[in-house]
Amino acid sequence: MGSTAAHFLAMHGLGDIVLLDRNEGMPQGKMLDLLQAGPIEGFDLKIIGTNSYEDTADSDIAVITAGVPRKPGMSRDELLAINADIVRSVGANIKKYSPNAIVIVVTNPLDAMVYVAWKETGFPANRIVGMAGILDSARMRTFIAQACGVDAKEVDAVVLGGHGDTMIPLMRLTTVKGAPISKFLPQEKIDEIVQRTRNGGAEIVNLLKTGSAYFAPAAAVCAMVASILKDQKRVFPCAAYLSGEYGVKGLFIGVPVELGKNGVEKIVEIELNDEEKSAFAKTAEHIKSLTSSL
């Protein structure tokens, strides 16, 4: 996923890129391959492949994709302990070499790993953010577009909460060509799409068998990086630190945020109904249990 994200970032000309991995030769080989795509694709960036954090010094943004991927039948939560150790190590080196960086975390279980990165770096909470809700929302938009026979750009949808079984697709705010989804699909089909969205990552893992999703997550990372570097202040659902918003304090949870040059510049609060509030409290409790076990 990291190399795919680098490809998207290069294609959009967002800045010089450093690919880092502990395995000797692997990031160097991917770097060469990506560089050689430049004359064809039309990008001209400095790209480094390395096994040393020194080469990442003074990065503006650090994207953490390192971690053990899921295998078929595994939940994201089963990766907790091993990936927490990996994220701690990466976080310590980001703090050492790029103390002013904004950190985007992709490693699963996402909401807990963002918390680990925050604790390890000691950075202000606005400079730590997790990629999840953009991906979950994109998956749901894709499934709705397929069911309705429309372009996915005609679908507006947002998914809040944790990146997992407790995520909260806000179907009452979901529209197709500006109209409520209920005008296009029966409730049975809507419920089916909600469940497929929750299982979106597992569906891909079960098909691939030796890895997890990378194209869509990488595209989501690229959109986040662009909004930060270009100070676009776009609003995306991301895992951000809550200080009382949505009735939650001290946790990173997926909510709409405004991303700009300072990272998370604003938490956008959506008015939730009673059912959605209950679901949000449930996802918060699940995330709290994960972070507490760390």
Q: Helix proportion of residues, in percent? A: 40-55%
**Count of alpha and pi helical runs:** 9
Shape: globular
**Order of strands in the sheet with most strands:** 3-4-5
Mean pLDDT: 95
Q: Determine Rg (CA atoms, Å).
A: 19 Å
CATH superfamily of the domain at 2-130: NAD(P)-binding Rossmann-like Domain
CATH second-level architecture of the domain at 2-130: 3-Layer(aba) Sandwich
Which spans of ≥5 residues are poorly predicted at pLDDT below 50? none
Question: Roughly what fraction of the amino acids lie in strands?
Answer: 15-25%
CATH class (first level) name of the domain at 2-130: Alpha Beta
Taken in chain order, the helices and strands follow as HEHEEHEHEHEEEEEHHHEEEH
Secondary-structure-based class equals alpha/beta
CATH topology of the domain at 2-130: Rossmann fold
For the sheet with most strands, the description reads: 3 strands, parallel
Give a verbal description of the structure:
44% of the residues lie in helices and 19% in strands. α5 (133-148) runs antiparallel to α6. The strands form 5 sheets. It has a 3-stranded parallel beta sheet, sandwiched between helices. A 3-stranded antiparallel beta sheet has the order 6-9-10, with helices on one face. A 3-stranded antiparallel beta sheet has the order 11-12-13. It is globular, with a radius of gyration of 19 Å. The chain has helices spanning 2-11, 26-41, 80-97, 110-121, 133-148, 187-198, 200-208, 215-229, 274-293; strands spanning 17-20, 47-50, 61-64, 102-105, 128-130, 155-156, 159-160, 168-169, 175-176, 179-180, 234-243, 249-260, 263-267. The model has no long low-confidence stretch (mean pLDDT 95). The protein starts with a helix and ends with a helix. It has 294 residues and is of the alpha/beta class. The chain has a domain at 2-130: Rossmann fold (3-Layer(aba) Sandwich).
